[in-house]
Amino acid sequence: MNVARRADGLLSARQTLALLALVGQRAAGYAEEQALRDLAAIEHASRSRANNTIILLAEAGALERDGSYVRLASERSMEEWRSHIGDLTASIMVRRIEAEGPRCLQARGDEGLWIDSMLLPGIEDGLPLWLVEFGVALRGGSRERFWRVSPRHQQNFLAAARTANRIHTKRPMTQAQLEAALAAQADHGLEAELWVLEYERRRLSGHPLRDQIRRVSEENVAAGYDIASFSVPTVLHHDTHIEVKSFQGKKRFFWSRNEIEMAEALAEAYVLYLVDRGRLDEPGYTPEIIQGPYSALFLSTGSGWSISPTTFECVAET
User: Fold this and answer.
1) Helices (H), 204-256
2) Quick one: pLDDT at residue 170?
3) What pLDDT, on a 0 to 100 scale, did the predictor assign at position 4?
4) Span 302-306, mean pLDDT?
5) What distance in Å separates the CA atoms of residue 191 and residue 60, rounded to the nearest whole number?
6) Does domain 13-72 correspond to CATH entry 1.10.3720.10?
7) Is 34 helix (H, G, I), strand (E, B) or coil?
8) What is the pLDDT of residues 95-127, one digit of tens each?
9) Which of the residue ranges 65-69, 227-231, 308-312 would you say has the lowest mean pLDDT?
10) Please, is 51 exposed, middle or buried when counting C-beta atoms within 10 Å of its C-beta (0-12, 13-18, 19+)?
């Protein structure tokens, strides 16, 4: 049986040990379907939880699955199995903490390491309960949120926190790397602006003032937009103020406060051109154009954009 493990829990420790005892009765292997039926009859065990437990123990190397049969990976006493599964549970949880971060762990001085059970990764699959039932963590009562990690496993969980912090903390960017990144960003911005400038000149090829479609950004970096243009060939005043944003891959851009304020002031006369750098050489490519972006992104519901502040200005009041 190759049924994926579902998020509806695992057997209790008692039921799990009963499952191992049942499977251990037949060295050649126990038909998995029969094992599920027999365990349900003996222990009133949930079929789905029993199936989840078999899958987890097979993944951890405690059970072997061969076609429709399951057998013990090794011979052990029930007490040895209890200790072994505790070690397996701790090992799986350690890997999860390394992958997802150590927010669930607390150090309490002489009291050792504690677990906040509400923040444990993988609550939905039932593994956290095994921490208690197989002796990895000690719980004062069924309603206790914080569990004390047993001395046997303290160092492993502490090492998991150390590894997680190393993985999840980005290495600082050197000054040289920062300058290189800013230079690359500037190059990408210039490339996109020049492309849009030519795009506008092609779009308005018959305009009598076509030569006045120009890059404002090279004259005034604080203008709040990059290119002054015309909406249609019949208009002779700059009624289109274009802010160019380039991206590659995920559609994402940064919008400064100055640019946002200009977009609010100019309303429909302000236009965002979103340019995919990877498609600039593609014949017939057209950028995504958002006219009146202040209203479209900030005032309209269902715009399709998620907007988050990235910096804040902090000014002393005295």
Assistant:
1) none
2) 61
3) 43
4) 79
5) 53
6) no
7) helix
8) 999 988 899 999 998 999 999 999 998 777 889
9) 308-312
10) buried
Give the pair of three-digit tokens for residue 12: 């209790």
Both tokens assigned to 259: 């640019």
Q: Which part of the chain is CATH 1.10.10.10?
A: 13-72
pLDDT score for 161: 93
65, containing H or E segment: strand 63-66
Write out the two tokens for 35.
């094992």
pLDDT of 5 reads 44
Beta pairing partners, 242: 227, 271
Q: Which of 287, 265, 261, 262 is CA-nearest to residue 274?
A: 287
Exposed/middle/buried for residue 89 (C-beta within 10 Å: 0-12, 13-18, 19+) = buried
For residue 217, which amino acid is it? S
For residues 59 and 247, give the distance between their C-alpha atoms in angstroms, rounded to a whole number.
Answer: 42
Residue partners of 34: CB distance under 8 A and separation at least 6: none
**Residue 202 gets which letter from DSSP?**
H
Examine the pLDDT at 6 and tell me if it is beyond 80: no
Q: Which amino acid is at 34?
A: Q
Q: Cα torsion for 297, 299, 304, 305, to the nearest 10°? A: 40
- Under a CB-based contact definition with an 8 Å cutoff, are residues 71 and 23 in contact? yes
| Residue 304: C-alpha distances to residues 254, 296, 297, 301 (Å) | 16, 10, 8, 8
What one-letter code names the amino acid at 181?
A: A
Asked whether the beta carbons of 196 and 287 are under 8 A apart, the reply is yes
